[in-house]
Amino acid sequence: MAERVVLAYSGGLDTSVGIGWLKDATGKEVVALAIDVGQDGEDMDVIRQRALDCGAVESVVVDAKDEFANDYLVPAIKANALYQKRYPLVSALSRPLIAKYLASTAKELGANSVAHGCTGKGNDQVRFEAAVAALAPDLTSLAPVRDFALTRDKAILYAQEHNLPIEQSKKSPYSIDQNVWGRAVETGFLEDPWNAPIEDLYTYSKDPAEAREATEVTITFDQGVPVAINGQPVTPLQAVVQLNKLAGDQGVGRIDIVEDRLVGIKSREVYESPAGLTLIAAHEELENVTIERDVARYKRRVEAEWAELVYDGLWFSGLKRALDSFIDETQRFVTGEVRLSLHAGKATVTGRRSEVGLYDYNLATYDTGDTFDQSLAKGFIELWSLPSKISARRDLAN
Questions:
Q1: Do 222 and 91 share a structural domain?
Q2: What is the CATH number of the domain that holds 375?
Q3: Which of 36, 53, 104, 175 is catalytic?
Q4: What angle do CA 45, 51, 174 make, to 5 degrees?
Q5: How far is Cα 211 from Cα 110, in angstroms, rounded to an integer?
Q6: If you write DSSP's letter for every residue of 203-226 in order, what string do you get?
Q7: What 3-state DSSP class applies to 4?
Q8: Are residues 134 and 203 in the same domain?
Q9: Exactly one of 95, 254, 268, 352 is catalytic; which is it?
Q10: Known binding site for L-aspartate: residues?
């Protein structure tokens, strides 16, 4: 049997042409692998057949939406994961899941290599190949667009010459990647960071400037996991889908950022993640009620490191696993409800409550019934400021 390569297949021009291009360049049979992570768009059965029509010897489609939500989005929620404090890792979270199936499919079908359609300029090439290296170090990773100079004009010409079933419509000015967690839009006029985004860029969210009544939503968490929306039980995937609609209709989740790419360049990106930003805002506020001060302070440092590891393609690294253990430990009592007002592009927390929270009304109140002994504060301040007082005396004396 001929050697095989498993290609991460999207159904678009580059990966469709990549099937024949890989076969011509390497002599290997190509197995197409498409992973459904909630990207919507075309029917996955259509994508499966397109891969076969483009020359794949096998075409595999995996519905991984629930796995994506349970095993990748939930950890991101627990970590309040925002790269550069703003980007909820829309694409970065899907890549290790796709790489996992690339590796397992290659082993199952006897392939000795995997492939993807990334260029040499972006982050995803690193994410795919680093993940595959961690999961199956014996596999070789190929990238036809990067390694075999498969430019877009060459890809269009190849598709025309081989009568591939791909629409050769006018090229979109944007590069778009999406899944159930959000959408990423780049290139075109966005490459000039002075140019403001236009409304045509967005599909997951409506214009936040439109006049409409606010939407109130209550999210219930159990140990950091969203388990109900407005009192109705949900799976993590259902929570994301519902909040994409509720928050997206209010224009929540739009992000315009100049981002530090792993390969060393800065890139202007526009994202939509209505559910992502809403869930993280709610979860972070519930932590404020349920996690003790020192743990919360330290966790914020861990969150930044966690987000950078995921962004940098190190999902399967030892440090990432160790940080996961710490984060999971912090979630033991992150249980309760958070109420938010969704309006004019913002998800604003308006209420929070937890039966295992650390907020004590009797300690916090300034009214009659206050149980906080204010007489202890004077001595506390004396001891707390003692090192500063001693050093200040020395500084003034010298």
A1: no
A2: 1.20.5
A3: 175
A4: 90
A5: 57
A6: SSS--TTS----EEEEEEEETTEE
A7: strand
A8: no
A9: 95
A10: 119, 123-124
- Which residues line the annotated binding site? 8-16, 87, 117, 119, 123-124, 127, 175, 259, 271
**In this predicted structure, what is the pLDDT of residue 170?**
47
82 falls within a domain? yes
Q: How far is CA 157 from CA 13, 23, 160, in A?
A: 11, 17, 5
Domain that holds residue 220: 176-291+333-353
- Please tell me whether residues 273 and 376 are part of one structural domain: no
Going by pLDDT thresholds of 50, 70 and 90, the confidence category of residue 13 is confident
Contact (Cβ atoms closer than 8 angstroms) between residue 238 and residue 225:
no
Candidates 124, 205, 267, 268; catalytic one: 124
3-state secondary structure of 166: coil
pTM passes above 0.90: yes
pLDDT one-digit tens code per residue, 148-178? 777 777 888 888 888 888 765 445 678 889 9
**pLDDT for res 172:** 67
**Which tokens is 108 given?**
């199952």
Whether 367 is catalytic: no
Q: What angle do CA 249, 67, 12 make, to 5 degrees?
A: 70
- Check if the beta carbon of residue 189 is closer than 8 Å to that of residue 195: yes
Please write the tens of the pLDDT for every residue from 279-296. Answer: 999 999 999 999 999 999
CATH, residue 15: 3.40.50.620
Binding residue ranges for L-citrulline: 87, 123, 127, 175, 259, 271
C-alpha distances (whole Å) from 129 to each of 16, 205, 236, 334, 379 are 20, 32, 28, 35, 58
Confirm whether 158 is domain-assigned: yes
Structural domain count of the chain: 3
Mapped onto helix, strand or coil, the DSSP state of residue 133 is helix
**Residue 124 designated active-site:** yes
φ, ψ (nearest 5 deg) of residue 55? 110, 5
Kindly list the strands in the beta sheet with 58-63, ordered across the sheet, starting from the edge strand earlier in the chain: 58-63, 29-36, 4-8, 113-115, 140-142
- Lookup: tokens for 137: 């170090």
List, for residues 36-45, the tens digit of each pLDDT value: 999 987 789 9
Integer Cα distance of 316 and 367 in angstroms: 52
**Average of per-residue pLDDT across 58-64:** 97
Cα separation of 99 and 92, whole Å?
11
